[in-house]
């Protein structure tokens, strides 16, 4: 919801972070940040305009030359101090995330730890930036490569991981010698500002990391700003494609990670108890608001009835409540609008003929009647033609599709336009090996439901789940945030070679 400064209730306004300090936006437009468990407005967030974006980019541009020329070892030392401060303040960050997003404190802590792993990876930047060297590629001629920063970079991140996804981007970019403008989701703005404060406390020079808030106006100002060289994005597929195409027209580097419809195959030989527990965790963790959530279970052969029965029992046992509550398994959805959207998909699933095994609509939590709660929902008998299968729901809605063979399961997944993550549950090494080789998906789990790679690998899907050539973080992140320069050199002792107009050779 958006309002003007004249009509809003007086609550805290989250600042922009530009040039190493909190600043007030020039824009007078603001949005509301709600606590999803209570429905109350807890903060306002400025909706940055082009002038605000220009201020952030200018601060990053001014900071670039000295930070770019700072030796990688010194940059790594700042990163190490930042790492220490993140550990010290992880509980504070988790409380902010739970308060604005709704996820449980343990879930928020886990996501912070996965982000911290990327910072740990970035601490090794002196080694990661090493180029290649070849001596005597020709007579007394050496050739080598350098990895150099691309300039001012920007990141546009989603609401579902307020700390983790930003940490997929800015630590690697900054360690590589770039400066950065981060636009987190306006729904969950506070964690990014806190991380900027901690990074400055770690010794990061002013202007190297800047945080702006806003909606499409801010996004378009970033995409079209001539001072920004590279843009990273995580979000829905339509926006990812828009960002990719817009940046491409102006020659920007872009990695745009889009939506998902992640499948998990369960074969008849699988350990059903283990598989069911894993699927419950992957489907309903963080209220299903994960780009790596399993939302479609493909039951093969006669395993379906037993699997659905186990899923139903386990889904009914999940305790729903506020994210900071004790023994709570699943918190609310992020906003009332998102609750309405996900509930609408359950309505559509019923109308289109899917069997509603467990209905999460109408969930009420005592003492939190105005919260954005939706219970766990389970559909069986889903077909690929149904809307609930074709669309990314992004909520605690798990679908079961039934097929006869592994061949049919692989064909079903490969026909889907999304290709972010997938999993298989089986005791057969042969089936697993075939699956990992034939499936056309970017990240694959074998008896693991959420195959998010460690920070020293990289994260990214295929097809409509990724626009751009390089995945995020890991060595692909280093490649994205640097340009390779090839150098060939000769230091002759005497004289100068005679002039020649033929193609130079090095023999």
Report on the architecture of this protein.
- It is a single chain.
- α2 packs antiparallel against α4 (105-122), α4 (105-122) packs parallel to α6 and α10 packs across α11 (304-316).
- The model is unreliable at 4-8 (pLDDT under 50).
- With 507 residues, this protein is α/β, with parallel strands linked by helices.
- The relative contact order is 0.14.
- The chain is built from 16 helices and 23 strands.
- It folds into two domains: 2-258 and 465-486, Aldehyde Dehydrogenase, Chain A, domain 1, CATH 3.40.605; 262-446, Aldehyde Dehydrogenase, Chain A, domain 2.
- It has helices spanning 50-68, 72-88, 90-101, 105-122, 125-128, 164-175, 190-201, 216-223, 237-249, 272-284, 304-316, 336-351, 387-390, 406-415, 429-438, 474-480; strands at residues 2-4, 16-18, 21-23, 29-34, 41-46, 133-138, 141-149, 152-156, 179-183, 209-211, 230-234, 253-257, 262-266, 294-300, 355-358, 377-380, 397-403, 418-419, 421-425, 443-446, 462-463, 466-467, 482-490.
- A seven-stranded mixed beta sheet has the order 15-16-17-14-13-19-20, sandwiched between helices. A six-stranded mixed beta sheet has the order 10-9-8-11-12-22, with helices on both faces.
- The protein is globular, with a radius of gyration of 25 Å.
């Amino acid at each position: 919801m958006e309002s003007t400064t004249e009509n809003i209730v007086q609550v805290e306004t989250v600042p922009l972070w530009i040039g190493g300090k909190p600043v007030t936006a020039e824009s007078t437009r603001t949005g509301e940040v709600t606590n999803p468990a209570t429905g109350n407005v807890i903060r306002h967030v400025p909706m940055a305009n082009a002038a605000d974006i220009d201020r952030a980019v200018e601060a990053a541009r001014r900071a670039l030359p000295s930070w770019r020329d700072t030796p990688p070892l010194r940059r790594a030392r700042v990163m190490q101090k930042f790492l220490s401060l993140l550990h010290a303040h992880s509980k504070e960050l988790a409380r902010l995330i739970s308060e604005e997003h709704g996820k449980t404190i343990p879930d928020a802590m886990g996501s912070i730890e996965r982000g911290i792993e990327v910072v740990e990876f970035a601490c090794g930047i002196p080694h990661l930036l090493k180029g290649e060297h070849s001596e005597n590629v020709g007579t007394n001629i050496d050739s080598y490569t350098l990895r150099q920063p691309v300039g001012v970079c920007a990141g546009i991140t989603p609401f579902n991981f307020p700390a983790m996804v930003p940490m997929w981007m800015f630590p690697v970019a900054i360690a590589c010698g770039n400066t950065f403008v981060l636009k987190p989701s306006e729904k969950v703005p506070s964690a990014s500002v806190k991380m900027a404060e901690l990074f400055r406390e770690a010794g990061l020079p002013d202007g190297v990391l800047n945080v702006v808030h806003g909606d499409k106006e801010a996004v378009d100002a970033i995409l079209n700003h001539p001072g920004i060289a590279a843009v990273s994005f995580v979000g829905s597929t339509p926006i990812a494609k828009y960002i990719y195409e817009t940046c491409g027209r102006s020659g920007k580097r872009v990695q745009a990670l889009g939506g998902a419809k992640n499948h998990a195959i369960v074969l008849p030989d699988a350990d059903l108890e283990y598989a069911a527990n894993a699927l419950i965790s992957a489907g309903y963790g963080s209220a299903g608001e994960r780009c790596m959530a399993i939302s479609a279970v493909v039951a093969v052969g006669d395993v379906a009835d037993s699997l659905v029965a186990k899923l139903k029992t386990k889904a009914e046992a999940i305790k729903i409540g506020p994210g900071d509550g004790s023994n709570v398994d699943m918190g609310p959805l992020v906003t009332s609008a998102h609750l309405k959207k996900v509930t609408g998909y359950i309505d559509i699933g019923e109308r289109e003929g899917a069997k509603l095994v467990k209905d999460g609509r109408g969930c009420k939590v005592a003492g939190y009647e105005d919260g954005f709660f939706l219970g766990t929902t389970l559909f069986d008998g889903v077909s690929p033609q149904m809307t609930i299968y074709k669309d990314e729901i992004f909520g605690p809605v798990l679908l079961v599709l039934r097929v006869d063979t592994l061949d049919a399961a692989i064909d079903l997944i490969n026909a889907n336009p999304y290709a972010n993550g997938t999993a298989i549950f089986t005791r057969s090494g042969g089936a697993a090996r075939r699956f990992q080789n034939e499936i056309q998906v970017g990240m694959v789990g074998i008896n693991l439901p959420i195959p998010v790679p460690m920070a020293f690998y990289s994260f990214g899907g295929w097809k409509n789940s990724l626009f751009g050539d390089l995945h995020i973080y890991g060595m692909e992140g280093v490649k994205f945030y640097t340009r390779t320069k090839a150098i060939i050199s000769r230091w002759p002792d005497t004289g100068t070679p005679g002039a020649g107009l033929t193609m130079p050779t090095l023999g």
